[in-house]
Sequence to fold (143 residues):
Amino acid sequence: MKIAIASDHTGVKHKQEIINFLHSENIKVKDFGPENEKRVDYPDFAHLVAESVKSKEVDFGILFCGTGNGINMCANKHQEIRSALCWKKDIAQLSRLHNNANILTMPARFISFKEAKEITKEFIETKFEGGRHINRVNKIAIL
Ligand code: RB5
Fold:
């Protein structure tokens, strides 16, 4: 498995914690930055991860900003991206089971490192349930 990850300045520490966690699980990571907590604009980073997922260079994307909202909105502008804003592991699980989410977005200002790791683990280990959810997921995109 390979995962693309990025954040804005508010999520740099969470991003690094998740990179370390993913490496400990032998998962390859492409880090789109930023490298430090100097103020940046979250769209510049969200779009890089969304493009990486869309091109199938990676299996999933992970994004952090302060609330998760801004970076999630950017990712969801891309066709074929289903980015889920998750602050609890149950929501992450359902975003995979029901929505076949391909990007996990988390709010760095509102969750601990431990919570971020639990949410990430749940997201990457849960498979899409298919069945009645297939038609619904196919109706998300506006062509
Ligand atoms: C940055 O101050 C903040 O606006 C950003 O991290 C995010 O919460 C935006 O949605």
